Amino acid sequence: MTFTPRVFSGIKPSGDLHLGNYLGAIRRFVPLQDTHETIYCVVDMHAITVWQDPEDLKRWTYEIAAAYIAAGVDPTKSIIFNQSQVVEHAELSWIFNCVARMGWMARMTQFKDKAGENSEQVSLGLFAYPSLMAADILLYKATAVPVGEDQRQHLELTRDIAKKFNHDFKKQIKALSGEDEFFPITETLATGPAMRVKSLKDGGKKMSKSESSDLATIFMMDDADAIAKKIKRATSDAEPLPSEAAGLENRPEAENLVGIYAALSNQNVGQVLAEFGGQGWGKFKPALADLAVASLSPIADEMKRLVADRGEMDRILRDGADRARAIAQPIMADVRNIVGFVR
């Protein structure tokens, strides 16, 4: 069966957005608008698998939607909405809970990492949320998802659920559509190497919203002064920059800062080192600070403008939800028919 080329991706509103979210995900969404149908969701139902203050959840939902738009996602070309506005996500997730096997869920390393030794105390939602992730993707019959390394296992589970559904209900699918498959086997979308941004204070750790030092993380709503201050105070070593990428080995802080410069300037690491190789941090950090301010400040300003205009943001999210629902409802109606629900 030929499926419409369609991309789905989403970000969870569970904290303030930072540079890692931008370079690792949001910026990569923009060019896909020209080659695929694109659906970009704020996955607020995923957020509540752990406790979220309701007011914070609302604020972060608006901020993520605003970040999509400020970064260049066009809400007239792409569908932008928050997940909870389209109830079919939850309905399909329940059906997938009944398709997926317990053993599949138990193997999910992210659950093990998040639950730790308290697995019996965490929510059932945290254990089962890969079924909701599969529903997010397959509700729109998305053919591709731009995922990072930390989500590849969940995409494999989505593929397993789609295969099992197609197999378990092959007779009903054939009778309904004459096809052998109802859901596509969603592929990973190659969008070039993802930038894995590290803490500005410890190059061995991912940049995180929960760092103990505010100087470790560049947040997407930071103003120009804060961005420049954090770059200039970032941890570095005593050596000058090498002239080749191999010279960054075993220098995690240097590798991180050079990688950020390369990502923001749309260059590779070799090109950056060709310009700055042999120079010290007194030259490189101010150049990186200027670049980061020039790249990120306009996005921060636009995010702040959008977040302040709740009426406009509500309009965009409602419009996106209406357009998402127009795709989801006929697919969900077919699913109900296939599994034998009486309507």
Q: CATH homologous superfamily name of the largest domain?
A: HUPs
Shape descriptor: elongated
Strand order of the largest sheet: 1-2-3
Structural class, by secondary structure, is mainly alpha
- Rg measurement, Å: 22 Å
What is the number of helices?
Answer: 14
Profile the largest sheet. Answer: 3 strands, parallel
Compute the number of strand runs: 5
The CATH architecture of the largest domain comes to: 3-Layer(aba) Sandwich
CATH class of the largest domain: Alpha Beta
- Gap between N and C termini, in Å? 27 Å
Strand content: 5-15%
Question: SSE order, as H and E?
Answer: EHEHHEHHHHEHHEHHHHH
Average pLDDT number: 93
Reported by name, the CATH topology of the largest domain is Rossmann fold
Show unreliable segments: none
Helix amount: 40-55%
Family: Belongs to the class-I aminoacyl-tRNA synthetase family.
Motif ('HIGH' region): 13-21
Function: Catalyzes the attachment of tryptophan to tRNA(Trp).
Enzyme class: ligase
Descriptive account of the structure:
The protein has 2 domains: 6-195 and 310-339, Rossmann fold (3-Layer(aba) Sandwich); 224-305, Tyrosyl-Transfer RNA Synthetase (Orthogonal Bundle), CATH 1.10.240. 53% of the residues lie in helices and 6% in strands. It has 14 helices and 5 strands. The chain has helices at 19-29, 44-47, 54-71, 88-97, 102-106, 109-115, 124-138, 152-168, 170-177, 224-232, 252-264, 269-276, 281-308, 310-339, and strands at 6-11, 37-42, 79-82, 144-145, 187-188. The strands form 2 sheets. The chain has a 3-stranded parallel beta sheet. Strands 4-5 form a two-stranded parallel ribbon. Strand 1, helix 1 and strand 2 (37-42) form a beta-alpha-beta unit. It is elongated. The mean pLDDT is 93.
